[in-house]
Each structure stands twice: as C-alpha cells, then as structure tokens.
C-alpha cells in the first residue's frame, strides 16, 4: 500500500491525535492499542505511537494488564473537556495556510487552558493562592 507524501517529502498523516481522542470519547471502557488501530485503520505501531504521545501530554492514562497487554483511556480531565478543538482551526479558516500563526495560536490556547485548569482546581480544593 503506497502512502501519500507532502511537499516536504514526509508522509502525510491520515489519522491525527484528535481522531484518537474522538474515538476514546465514544468508548465507555478502556481499549487496547490494537483496537484503536483496527477502528482507525492504522497499524498497531502507529496506534501505540499516538497513544504514547497522548500519554506524554497527560491526555490518556494506561495500565499494563498482563502478558504485555496495555489498556488505555482518557483522563477524567480530558473526558470532562470533551472532544478535541483542533478541527475548529481548519473549520473557521482562521489561519489559512499560515502554519506558523496556527502553531502560535495552539500554544497560546494550551497556555490558557492550563491556566484555566489551574485556577479551577485551586478553587475546588480550597488552596487558592489569591490569584485570579
């Protein structure tokens, strides 16, 4: 099976991290990397790479369940947050082909999300440091 390459010669990604998140949101139980790969039409290795990247970003959790098997599920925070927002950038055409501007906007959005979560959690656990 041949794969498409972009202008820079790298393979074009057909399944994004957001696709994996969306799939996990649809599930009420943990899944294996193999299941993710089968549902999204990618190799087991690609599915595991994406799940590991999401784990590094603290979006999913994992647990070894024996015999080398690992199950994966969304963190409570990600499940409460809902689906990915990445598709919105393309939908509204905010940045057109300006990938640098889109990258800056994504980074700033992440900063705002982290700050919002920090403020929310400090109000919930009663350890507010007085910042707003």
Rounded to an integer in angstroms, the radius of gyration calculated over CA atoms is: 17 Å
Low-confidence stretches: none
Structural class comes to: mainly alpha
* Assembly classification: single chain
Report strand %.
5-15%
H/E element sequence: HEHHEEHHH
Q: How do the strands line up in the largest sheet?
A: 1-3-2
Question: Could you tell me how far the N terminus lies from the C terminus, measured between alpha carbons in angstroms?
Answer: 54 Å
Helix content: 40-55%
Overall number of strands: 3
Write down the overall mean pLDDT: 78
Number of helices: 6
What does the largest sheet look like? 3 strands, antiparallel
Shape: flat
């Amino acid at each position: 099976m041949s794969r498409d390459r972009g202008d820079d010669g790298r393979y074009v990604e057909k399944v994004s991290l957001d696709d994996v998140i969306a799939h996990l949101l649809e599930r009420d139980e943990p899944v294996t990397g193999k299941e993710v790969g089968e549902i999204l039409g990618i190799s087991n290795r690609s599915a595991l790479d994406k799940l590991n990247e999401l784990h590094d970003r603290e979006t999913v959790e994992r647990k070894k369940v024996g015999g080398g098997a690992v199950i994966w599920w969304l963190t409570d925070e990600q499940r409460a947050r809902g689906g990915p927002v990445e598709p919105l950038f393309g939908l509204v055409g905010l940045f057109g082909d300006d990938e640098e501007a889109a990258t800056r906007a994504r980074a700033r959005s992440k900063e705002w999300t982290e700050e919002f979560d920090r403020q929310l959690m400090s109000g919930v656990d009663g350890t507010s440091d007085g910042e707003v």
